[in-house]
C-alpha cells in the first residue's frame, strides 16, 4: 500500500495530507490511513501491544534487547548454584529416526546447527534482495561501506594474530571478524534524529558485506572431515533450487522442501550445516514487483466478490502472493523468527560462561581473551574507519546525507560489538572448553567496551568533524520558470 501511495503523492492533495486513496468507492475513492486487518472481528476483543511497543519491536532495537536479556540470563544461570544444570540441559541428546536412518543431536547442536540455519538464511535473503533491488546495485553507494567491511574483516584478524602467533589459540583468528547487526542498529536507533539515516544505511550495507566474509570463512576454514558423497548430494539439492528458479516457481513450499534436503546433506558432508541456509537465501528469486502480476490481483478479487467460494478464495490469495517476490515473502516469514526466537535462543545456549575467580584469572592472562577483545575493539575501529575514509578521499564512493567523519569513527567502534557470529565461530574454532570460555570472556569484554565507547564517540564527536561528502548532498532544486500558477484540483476531488 505504501509503495503505490508514493506514486500518488503530489497528484492528489489528500495523498499529500497523508490519506491514501484507493479507487472503488462511489466517487472513485476510499479514504483510508492503513489497510484494515482481514476477517471478521472476534467476539472477545484481545488487546494487543501499545503502538509504541509495536514500533519498538519492529526495529532492530527490539531484537537487540531480547539478545541482551538472554545473554544476562545465560550468565546468571551459568554462575548460579544451579550452574551444572546449564550444561546438562543443553547437552540433552535427541534422536530423529525414520526407518534405518537417524539423526542424533543435542539441544545445543539443534540451536547452533539447526536454528542458526534460519538466521543465516535471512542473511542470505537480505544480501540477495539488496544486490537485486536494493542499495548494493549502486557501485558508488556500496563502495565505501564495502571497503569499510573489508577493513573490518582484515584488521581484526591481524590484531588477533599479534596476540596469538602460535599455539592452540591461533585457531580463533576468525572470531572477531563479524559485526552483530542487531546490537549496532539497535544502539543507532536509540540516537533518533541525531543519527543520520545514511549512517544506518552505511552500517547495514557494511554488515551485509561483513556477513558474506564471515560466512565464507566458516564454510572454507571451519569445516572438517568432508564427506564427498554427501557433498555431491548437497550439490544436487542446489541444482534443484536453480531449476526451480529458472522455471519461475514462485511458491515457497518447493524451496522449503529443498532447504530441508540441502540441510541434511550439508550436515552429513562435514561442512557446517548453516551454509545450507545461506545458499537457499542467496538462490531464492528476488525481483521488483511486476506490474502485470499486481494488476492481476483485482481480477481474482472481483471473481471472489461475485462468488465467495473456497476455490476462488485460494486463487485470490495465490494471485496476491505471486505479485510479491519469493525472497521478500520468505524474509517476511522468517525475519521475526530469526530476530525474536533464534538469536535469543542462541545467546541463551552459548553465552553461559563461568565467571568465577579461577576463570577470570585465567582470562586475565590469556592471549586468546586479550586477542579477541583487542581485535573487536581496535581492529574494527581502525580497519573500518581507515578503509572508509580512504575510499571517500580516493573518490571511490560517497557518504551523503550529512554523515560526518565523527559518525564514521563512532560507528566503526560500535562495529566491535561482535556477539552472535563471534560466539558461533568460537564453538567451531576451539574444542577445548577452557579456550572457549576465555574467548567468550573476550567477546563480552570487547563488545561491552565497544558499545560504551562507540556510543560516547557518536554522542560527543558526531557533529564536531567535517562532512564526508559535502558536495553530494547538493542544494535545493531551483524554482520552475515563471509564471507560477496554483495547482488545479479535478472536480471529482472537490
Description:
65% of the residues lie in helices and 4% in strands. The chain is mainly alpha-helical. Among the domains are: 1-33, no CATH class; 60-106 and 138-222 and 353-470, Na+/H+ antiporter like fold (Up-down Bundle), CATH 1.20.1530. A two-stranded antiparallel sheet has the order 1-2. A hairpin with a 7-residue loop joins strand 1 and strand 2. Helix 6 runs parallel beside helix 12, helix 7 (139-163) crosses helix 9 (197-221) and helix 11 runs antiparallel to helix 12 (274-283). It is globular, with a radius of gyration of 26 Å. Mean pLDDT is 81; it is low at 1-33.
Summary keywords:
disordered N terminus; Na+/H+ antiporter like fold; two-stranded antiparallel ribbon; mainly alpha; 494 residues
